[in-house]
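Might you be able to review the protein record set out just below?
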Amino acid sequence: KSISTDIRLKKKTLPVVYLLEKARGAASAHLLEIYQKDLLDNEDVHFVLDLMNSLDAHGHAREVSRKFLKQALAELDRISLSTAAREELQAVATFLLERES
């Protein structure tokens, strides 16, 4: 699944929510117009992608993801697990974060 597909389907992913929060002026107004449409065209998708790049929405999403990973790993340290189970959960969590980066 690509980012463009998520945009076209108007999914409220973390980068899109970030844009809705951080975009200002004409960019904000146009973004709201786009997300009120029934169907998005290629120009709409490109506008959203360009705005994501200019506001570093993906960087923000990675930062938030790393924060939650750190919290999740800290929680693993608080519970009673076998070493193998803990290492497997840590590996899966880290893999999921790296896969999305």
User: Anything to note?
Assistant: The first helix runs from residue 3 to 8.
